Amino acid sequence: MKKFLTALFGLTALAAMLPAASSLTRETVITHLDSCEAILQEIQGNAKTAIPADILHRAKGLVIVNQFQAGFILGIKDGYAVAMVRRPNGKWSVPAFLKAGELSFGLQAGGKSITAVYVLMDDDTARLLLKNRMNLGAEAKAVAGIRAAEREALSKTLPGDANVLVYSTTEGFYLGAAVKTGYMSPSEESNRLFYNTNHRMPELLFSDWVTPPEEARYLMNYVTRLTQ
Using one digit for the tens of pLDDT, what is the confidence trace for 142-155? Predict the structure, then answer.
């Protein structure tokens, strides 16, 4: 019982460290989108972290993740993500919003920001985004991707069955390492507020039923330029 109460206290304390789960507003959702744009720009703007052009050219989907991790006995990752997929006609979808989080047990302490881009390399992996809850590390083969600066220097190739390549602003990922991505799920409230529609992930990602708001066009245009 004592151990249970200690764990419960630790979980409560961690929850207090994270941003308050107040009701979303459209302005908050736009801020999330802007921060995901900035993450992609930061990764691509640094030779030490940039995704190679040939990887982007073959990409079938992108998930840009912004998380906060805190831990003391229990560990919590909480945050949000934006996903886009490349449709059969070669055009990119509107950005769709996701929740991103993870709960883990173990002796740990501290907190950090986790920002990353998951590059989805095949259509089957991109369609995992339609699930109510997914873990790209468990349901797909996620590995740390070769960076643009390493492309010429490294002769080691990625595992042949890798279909999610992970790029982070954190230096220290190493080639071939398995990556725990945590769970993600659609943020229906964020999508409803941003697009003023009740359309869900299938319609947002794989149809032309939704007209992108002006706030979404910069990211869409930027991704299109990167992946041509």
Answer: 777 777 666 554 44
* pLDDT over 90 percentage in the chain: 51
201 against 71, higher pLDDT: 201
Q: Within 10 A of 86 (CB to CB), how many other CB atoms are there?
A: 20
CA dist 168 and 149 (Å) reads: 14
> What would the pLDDT profile of 57-110 be if each residue is shown by its tens digit?
999 999 999 987 665 555 556 789 999 999 999 999 999 999 987 644 444 445
- Residues whose CB falls within 8 Å of the CB of residue 184, separated by 6 or more in sequence, listed in order: 63, 65, 81, 98, 99, 100, 101, 133, 134, 135, 136
* Alpha-carbon dihedral angle through residues 204, 97, 102, 122, given to the nearest 10 degrees: 40
Query: What is the DSSP pairing of strand 183-186 with strand 142-144?
Result: unpaired
Which candidate, 101, 112, 99, 100, places its Cα nearest to that of 71?
112
The ranges assigned to domains in the chain are: 2-227
Nearest to 135 by CA among 111, 166, 160: 166
The one-character DSSP state at 89 is T
Tell me how many degrees the CA angle 213-164-137 measures, rounded to the nearest 5. 105
Neighbours of 202 (CB within 10 A): 13
